[in-house]
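Subgroup meeting minutes
Present: P.N., E.W., G.H.
Scribe: E.W.

1. P.N. recapped why we're keeping a running log of single-chain structure predictions: easier to compare across weeks, and new members can see raw inputs and outputs side by side.
2. G.H. added today's entry (263 aa).
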Amino acid sequence: MEIIENPDKYSKRFSAWHGDERLNGYPWIENINSQLTPLKRALPMLNLGLISLAGAYINGTEAFDLESRDGDSGFHEIPVEVGASDLRYAVKDYDTKDVELDRNVQIPIERLLEYQANSVIGRLNDVWWSISSWTPNAQIAADEIAPMLSERLERYEVNAALIIPASHLGHQTAGIIARSIEMNGIPTVTIAVNKLTAERVRPPRTTYYDGEFGAVVGAPNFPEFQLRVLDQTLRSMETFDQPGIRRMTVELQSKVEAARGER
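Output recorded in log:
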């Protein structure tokens, strides 16, 4: 399976794109096939890797390149112990107000550590990986970012990866990375709030709901909702028997809470 099907066709279309920051005329990836790597361990036995496309970096280190037409070809490897106050965000395609208020809306470290403490997952990996939300050249994501990232996941003996985009374009990059990681034998699941882009790129496992860019895991300072999104996403990993995208029921549950005056 190719990470990007018909790569020569995509390269020609990308070369002809005028680089509009609003993505007008952008040549979106359109894959047909996908590959599913079976989950070999139950959630309580997993070393879970977190991959965020929120464009985060540690204050004082080099920010992601937002000026290149292709986008940034690297990633940041960030220890779990690094606090939210030490993070900064280099973005151009989503509003950072929610993630700056509560990083768990895009980088759910505290929520996943709660899962670790309650044995929902075996453990959260010691480091997590941050990728730029703005990588217009999908070939860079497929040829450079994804292979290096797969090597790091193998180095840390990660058993499964949770991938969280933050923006429209980030959904495409997330799907490309998921496809590559699965081809290297590590199961993934991607959270989406943009169903169309996920369906175009076809990551192996995707859960989605009608959420917001910049707060894909849920509204800031609403841990109950964030846990609901994560719970449905992670538990779905065990039940996917073929590649696909599944709708979560988190909005319905929240509407019931609101009707009861609970939120």
